[in-house]
Amino acid sequence: MASNTETRITIHGMDSVEHKEEDVNYSQRGQWLRAAVLGANDGLLSTASLMMGVGAVKDDPKAMIISGFAGLVGGACSMAIGEFVSVYSQLDIEVAQLKREQRMKDGEILGDEQDRREQLPNPLHAAVASALAFAVGAMVPLLAAGFIRRHEVRMVVMAVAATVALVVFGLVGALLGRAPVVRAGMRVLVGGWLAMAATFGMMKLFGTIGL
């Protein structure tokens, strides 16, 4: 009986350790996943919507490409600065909390606290990741529209490319985050369609009434 009891205790302890390690891994992965997936989706949607809005009122491929490239540069810089400020604020809060805990323990630094210090978020890394992810997403509509001369075909190809990319980003984010695949993919896809349709429709309306 004693052996069985010890076995159950050991197995329960191993389960707790494995569960804790799994939670830590997903938490660390979530920081990078959030920046990468959000950055890529923002780059794709903002650039595609901008280019479709320009295409709704002007049949000029150069204007679409220039506006899309400007959106890529401006959006990547905005994402980088926003992510840097956000993560730096989070870092300040976590560092202050660690200092409070250290003062309460008379300056003693325990092993788990040292691990927490090593796992603190890096604002610069987060900013670079967000900017690169945004640029990757923004390149999808730019590449889709950059080599097509006919206006109608260019708009359709860009919409199809954006749709495929939205599905891919949604599925990748769901798989890495262990979220429901279909629900996450449809959420990203429908949201992207609404954003592009709203931009195209509003610009088409403004172009029709001469604003």
TrEMBL record:
Instruction: Pull one GO CC term from this UniProt entry.
Output: vacuolar membrane
**InterPro entries on file:** Ccc1_fam (IPR008217)
* Catalysis: reaction(s): Fe(2+)(in) = Fe(2+)(out)
Sorted keywords for this record are: Ion transport, Iron, Iron transport, Membrane, Transmembrane, Transmembrane helix, Transport, Vacuole
Q: Does the keyword Membrane apply?
A: yes
Supply one GO molecular-function term. Answer: iron ion sequestering activity
Q: Which residues form a coiled coil?
A: none
- Which compartment or compartments is the protein found in? Vacuole membrane
Swiss-Prot/TrEMBL GO biological process terms: intracellular manganese ion homeostasis
List the transmembrane segments: 32-51, 63-81, 124-148, 155-176, 188-207
Q: Which family, according to the similarity comment? A: Belongs to the CCC1 family.
Question: What is the protein's known function?
Answer: Vacuolar Fe(2+) uptake transporter.
Instruction: Quote the protein name from its UniProt record.
Output: Vacuolar iron transporter
